Amino acid sequence: MHDQNPIDHLIGLLAKLPGFGRRSARRAALKMLMQPDQAMLPLAAALQAAAAAVQPCRTCGNLDAANPCGICRDPQRDQGLICVVEGVSELWALERAHAHRGLYHVLGGTLSALGGIGPEDLAVQPLLARIEGAAEPVREVILALPATVDGATTAHYLTDRLRPAGVAVTRLAQGVPIGGALDVLDEGTLAAALKARRAV
């Protein structure tokens, strides 16, 4: 069997990345191949360094070169507030919004009967142990889980498990997005917005 063409191999690997199809992978590969010293070699070095240094945080599950991660080590963070997210991408999205100044806990997924994912497959036990052993009491756990059936199932399960710990359990509000027009929203979003209404 002949070795695969290195350009085709590069395009194939790039096409596996989220947001990349074959066409965008070809464009990215061409851009790098046209300027290997400025684009390709620094990227290859950065990928190698990240692969060697980045690891999951032993406290929250975030990805960082330090362990515990920078968020867990930040003394300015509210230690009594933990935001539970499905994955690292959701954690990073909340960080970009600069809306949460507490800590995080990455579950590593959501409960799914169809997918065969049970509580033992998620970081539920580490969350409970973390709350129980916290140096500063945890006042509130925010469940920032997806607005799906599996997300709702996971939220109900976590609420039941967290209740004996005596912490307040809250969920993200759901409803009309900023800049959203009512006539283009689905019925579920409109219903959730009406249920979550508040005084002005």
Query: Structural class of the secondary structure composition?
Result: alpha/beta
Radius of gyration: 21 Å
Order of helices and strands: HHHEEHEHEHEHEH
**CATH fold name of the largest domain, please?**
Dna Topoisomerase Vi A Subunit, Chain: A, domain 2
Strands of the widest sheet, in order across it, are 4-3-5-6
**Unreliable stretches, pLDDT < 50, 5 or more residues?**
none
Number of helical stretches of at least 4 residues: 8
Binned strand content: 5-15%
Helix content, binned percent: 40-55%
CATH architecture of the largest domain: 3-Layer(aba) Sandwich
Cα separation of the termini: 70 Å
The level-1 CATH class of the largest domain: Alpha Beta
Average pLDDT metric? 92
The main β sheet shows up as: 4 strands, parallel
Net shape? globular
**How many domains, as an integer?**
2
Please provide the count of β strands.
6
Overview of this protein structure:
The protein has helices at about 5-15, 20-35, 35-55, 70-75, 90-95, 125-130, 150-160, 185-195; strands at about 55, 65, 80-85, 100-105, 140-145, 170. The chain has about 200 residues and is of the alpha/beta class. The protein has 2 domains: about 5-55, Helicase, Ruva Protein, domain 3 (Orthogonal Bundle), CATH 1.10.8; about 65-170, Dna Topoisomerase Vi A Subunit, Chain: A, domain 2 (3-Layer(aba) Sandwich). The strands form 2 sheets. Strands 4-3-5-6 form a 4-stranded parallel β-sheet. The chain has a two-stranded antiparallel sheet with strand order 1-2. Strand 5 (about 140-145), helix 7 (about 150-160) and strand 6 form a beta-alpha-beta unit. Helix 1 (about 5-15) packs across helix 2 and helix 2 (about 20-35) packs across helix 3. The radius of gyration is 21 Å and the shape is globular. The mean pLDDT is about 90. This is Recombination protein RecR.
